[in-house]
Amino acid sequence: MKPSPAVPVERERTGDAWTLVFTRELKHPRAKVWAALTDPDHLDAWSPFRPDRDLGRTGPAVLTMEDGDTKANIVRAEPPHTLEYQWDEDLLRWNLEELEGGGTRLTLRHTMKDPGFLPKAAAGWHICLDVADRLLAGDPVPVIRGEEAKKSGWQELADAYAAKLEGPEPEEDA
């Protein structure tokens, strides 16, 4: 599957952490997108992990990836608009905004320590969300993870996002 073009992204700095702000507009209803973000079967079909439970409620979870399990803690689950979880050392917050006409603006705020990982994360989430978009449209493609992502345009996307994210270091948010 050839990925869609890179989308606008931003980076923010708070203390020693960096946040990738990644926004996609999807043609699908917010409740359907929420299910894709929380239901284990949906997540297994598009995300980099399979959770051991529904992520739509707070508390610990185990996320299984190709290279093993990682712990997560869902700290905020407010259907159908906000999902936030600690994933290993990273913090991910998904916000879903209903658009006129029934679509959804999905904004992912992925906070991490290493600013060099921002374009790599953007490329990975981009490919994942392309797969999710196809799944939600009823035209699923196989999940793309690990080495398969590298064969599916990941490096080109990472390079494009690195160019979008370079420039003067943003001032620290208060």
TrEMBL record:
Domain (Activator of Hsp90 ATPase homologue 1/2-like C-terminal): residue spans on this chain: 28-131
Protein name: Activator of Hsp90 ATPase homologue 1/2-like C-terminal domain-containing protein
Domain of life: Bacteria
A Pfam family matched in the record: AHSA1
InterPro entries named in the record: ASHA1/2-like_C, START-like_dom_sf
Family: Belongs to the AHA1 family.
